[in-house]
TrEMBL record:
This is START domain-containing protein. Signal peptide: none annotated. The keyword Nucleus applies. Residues 1-192 form the START domain. Keywords: DNA-binding, Homeobox, Nucleus, Transcription, Transcription regulation. GO terms for molecular function: DNA binding; lipid binding. It comes from Gossypium klotzschianum. The keyword Cytoplasm does not apply. InterPro entries: HD-Zip_IV, HD-Zip_IV_C, START_lipid-bd_dom. It comes from the Eukaryota.
Length: 462
C-alpha cells in the first residue's frame, strides 16, 4: 500500500521482516483520529498497551488547513506487557495527507524510515527499523471511520523467551491486527468518556465526576502497562528456580507524585494456561469470583459501589469497589479502583487501592495526578499451543490446544525511603505471592472447567 524503495545492501540475514495488514470500523471520526496521530501524547493515550513512550522531535512542515500535509520527525518506544519481550525503539517520519480516491476522501497517515535523512540518530538494541507503515482513514456515517492498517518493519533477530517466541514471530505482538484491536477498544472508551446519556450504577454524582474517574482509571492502566514492561531501560532480574524461568523482578525509586513514594518492588510472571482467553478474563474481572482466590483478596469481600460501562462488551467497564474488612469504619473506608477491558488481541484487568478522599478529589474535578496509585493486574492474550495432543488443525496437520498466556504483575511498596536497599526476604515474599496467585487461578479455572463438564454430562443423561 505504501511503496518505499528498500536499500537491499543494508539488509542481512540478521534482520527479520514483519508485514501485516488489517481493516476495521471504529467509533471515531477521521478528524479526531488524525489529531490523535499527530499529537504524541494523545497517540500514547490511545495505545497505552503498545506505545510506551512517544514524542514529536521536530515539526518539519506544518501543513495547510490544519494537519493536511503535516510532516513530523517522531520517536517512539513500543512495548509488549512483559519484561520477557524487548521493546522496539525508532525514529521515523510521520506524514499526514488528505486525498481523494475514487470520489471518496481519505486521510493517510504514513510512517517511513529516516534512511538518508538523520543517520546520527541512534536507538538501543535490538535494532528496529519502521518501514513504510500507517493507515488509511475513511469517514463513515454517524461518526464512524473505516481504518485500513499496514505494519511493516525490520527487526534485528535476537533471542526471545520461548513462551513469547511464537506470539512475537507470528506478528500478534506488534502486527496490524493488534494495533487495530486496541484502537477499536480505545475508540469505544473515548466515546463513552464523551457521552452524557449513559446510565451508571452507584455513587457517581454527575457526568463530570464520571469523566474524572475514567481519567484516573486511564492513568492507572497506563502506569500498570509501563511498569510491567521493559520500557525506559528498566532492568529486570530473573528469579532463580522459577517455573519455566518466566519470573522477573525489578525495583524503582519513586519520589514524584502519582505513585507512592519510596522503593517499589515489582514482580511479573507469564504462564501458559490451557483455557480460552475469554474464560480467564471472565474469572479475573469478576470481583466476586476473584475474592474466592485467597491470595488476591486476603479473605476480604468486595462490594461494587459504582459502575461505569465503557464498551459494548460487558467486560469493558470501570468499577469502584468497597473492601469489606473489619478495620473499615465511618472514619476510614478502603476502596479499590478496577478497570477491565478486552478485545480480540487480549485483555487487561487492573486495579489499585485508593482512599475515599482521593476518589472524592478526583470526582470533584481537582487535579488527580497527585493521587498515588500502585496498580496490580493481569494481561491475558489468546495463544494456541502446537503439540502432540489437542485438536488437529486440518490445514497444516498440527495438533492445536486452545489456550492463553497469563501475565501477572504485582507491585509493593518495599520501603518509604527511596534510597533503601531491597532485602532477600522481600524478594522471596513477592515471588511466593506471585507463584501462589498463578496456582490459585489455575486451580479455579480447572474447577470451573470440571463443573461445566459435569453439568454437560448430566444434561446429556437427561
Amino acid at each position: 500500500m505504501f511503496h518505499w524503495p528498500l536499500n537491499l545492501k543494508q539488509r542481512s540475514s540478521e534482520f527479520r521482516t514483519e508485514a501485516s495488514r488489517d481493516s476495521s470500523v471504529v467509533i471515531m471520526n477521521s478528524i479526531t483520529l488524525v489529531d490523535a496521530f499527530v499529537d504524541a501524547h494523545k497517540w500514547m493515550e490511545l495505545f497505552p498497551s503498545i506505545v510506551a513512550r512517544a514524542k514529536c522531535v521536530q515539526v518539519i512542515s506544518q501543513g495547510v488547513s490544519g494537519t493536511n500535509g503535516c510532516l513530523q520527525l517522531m520517536y517512539a518506544e513500543l512495548h509488549m506487557l512483559s519484561p520477557l519481550v524487548p521493546t522496539r525503539e525508532a525514529y521515523f517520519l510521520r506524514y499526514c495527507q488528505q486525498q481523494n480516491v475514487e470520489d471518496e476522501t481519505y486521510w493517510a497517515i504514513v510512517d517511513f524510515p529516516l534512511d538518508g535523512f538523520h543517520n546520527s540518530l541512534q536507538t538501543s538494541f535490538p535494532l528496529y527499523k519502521r518501514r513504510p507503515s500507517g493507515c488509511l482513514i475513511l469517514d463513515m456515517p454517524n461518526g464512524y471511520s473505516r481504518v485500513t492498517w499496514v505494519e511493516h518493519a525490520e527487526i534485528e533477530e535476537k533471542p526471545i523467551h520461548q513462551i513469547f517466541s511464537h506470539f512475537v514471530h507470528s506478528g500478534m505482538a506488534f502486527g496490524a491486527n493488534r494495533w487495530l484491536a486496541v484502537l477499536e477498544r480505545q475508540c469505544e472508551r473515548v466515546a463513552s468518556l464523551m457521552a452524557t446519556n449513559i446510565p451508571d450504577i452507584g455513587v457517581i454524582p454527575s457526568p463530570e465526576a464520571r469523566k474524572n474517574l475514567m481519567r484516573l482509571s486511564q492513568r492507572m492502566i497506563r502506569t500498570f502497562c509501563v511498569n510491567i514492561s521493559s520500557c525506559s531501560g528498566q532492568v529486570w532480574t530473573a528469579v532463580p528456580d522459577s517455573t519455566d524461568d518466566t519470573v522477573r523482578i525489578t525495583t524503582r525509586k519513586v519520589s514524584e507524585a502519582g505513585q507512592p513514594n519510596g522503593l517499589i518492588l515489582c514482580a511479573v510472571s507469564t504462564t501458559w494456561l490451557p483455557y480460552p482467553h475469554h474464560q480467564v478474563f471472565d474469572l479475573l474481572r469478576d470481583e466476586r469470583r476473584r475474592a474466592q482466590l485467597e491470595v488476591l483478596s486476603n479473605g476480604n469481600a468486595l462490594h461494587e459501589v459504582a459502575h461505569i460501562a465503557n464498551g459494548s462488551h460487558p467486560g469493558n467497564c470501570i468499577s469502584l469497589l468497597r473492601i469489606n474488612v473489619s478495620s473499615n469504619s465511618s472514619q476510614h473506608v478502603d476502596l479499590m479502583l478496577q478497570e477491565s477491558c478486552t478485545n480480540k488481541s487480549g485483555s487487561l484487568v487492573v486495579y489499585s487501592t485508593v482512599d475515599v478522599d482521593s476518589v472524592q478529589l478526583a470526582m470533584s474535578g481537582e487535579d488527580p495526578s497527585c493521587i498515588p496509585l500502585l496498580p496490580l493486574g493481569f494481561f491475558i492474550t489468546p495463544m494456541e499451543l502446537v503439540n502432540d495432543g489437542g485438536c488437529k488443525d486440518e490445514a497444516n496437520g498440527h495438533n492445536i490446544t486452545t489456550g492463553s498466556l497469563l501475565t501477572v504483575g504485582l507491585q509493593v511498596l518495599a520501603s518509604t525511603i527511596p534510597s533503601a536497599k531491597i532485602n532477600l526476604s522481600s524478594i522471596a515474599a513477592i515471588n511466593n505471592h506471585l507463584c501462589t496467585t498463578v496456582q490459585q487461578i489455575s486451580s479455579a479455572l480447572s474447577s470451573n472447567c470440571i463443573g461445566s463438564c459435569n453439568e454437560g454430562d448430566n444434561g446429556k443423561e437427561k
